[in-house]
Fold:
Amino acid sequence: MPFDLAEKFVVAAEHALGAALPDEYKAAMQLSNGGELEANGDEWALHPIADTSDRKRLARTSNHILAESRACQGWRGFPENALAIASNSAGDRLIFLKKGAAFDATVYAWSHETGELEVAAESFKKLRSA
Structure:
């Protein structure tokens, strides 16, 4: 079960990323840092934002958005400006794309097989909880 998330950890993630996260995403993650949702006919496990407030939260957020995005950077076709926010059981990712000093609110589904992007939702708020 996901925990809530203090704003200071969102700020730390944005600082490490060098870009602002979409407001709807930040608000949702502060209420429930992780969980599952549905998009494009599939179920996705959200990658949490790193929470170092105690050992339990640190362990539960070890697959945080920065670590998952770094891991994906080595994959063929993964966009350089992408932030991985969720994965499905097939290895695909839901991502945000960085545009300047912020990540665009549009959520894309990235296929690990083809490298293609498909719009999953125009904003994080439009995704459904699983």
Remarks:
- Strands lie at 36-39, 42-46, 82-87, 93-99, 102-103, 107-110, 117-121, 128-129.
- The chain has one domain: 7-129.
